[in-house]
Design brief:
With 97 residues, the protein is an alpha+beta fold. Helix content is 21%, strand content 33%.
Length: 97
């Protein structure tokens, strides 16, 4: 899973132009739970403290990352500041400042 560390930056405004790739099924249950827990923490930080996180995710063109505040989380995706979204299945890692 460390290959996402060479990810290319993508602004949250350009997220609608990429095709996300499912990466969730390649993980253990512990890794899946860890990402879901970190996304919930990112949502709390984004709503209460306006804090941004770095989100690494998988696309058909390779690994990308963006920095944004997470406004909401559903079972299938997260909503970022500005109305962009990322499917949870494609998220590789959530990094806090």
């Amino acid at each position: 899973m460390s290959s996402y560390l060479s990810a290319t930056y993508l602004s949250k405004e350009n997220l609608s132009q990429v095709k996300f790739e499912v990466n969730f099924l390649k993980r253990t249950q512990v890794e899946q739970n860890s990402i879901i827990r970190r996304l919930f923490q990112a949502m709390i930080m984004g709503n209460h403290y306006r804090s941004q996180v770095k989100l690494f995710f998988s696309t058909t063109e390779g690994y990308r990352y963006t920095e944004s505040a997470v406004w909401s989380k559903t079972d299938n995706c997260i909503m970022l500041k500005g109305g962009s979204y990322i499917p949870i299945q494609s998220i590789c890692s959530v990094e806090f400042p």
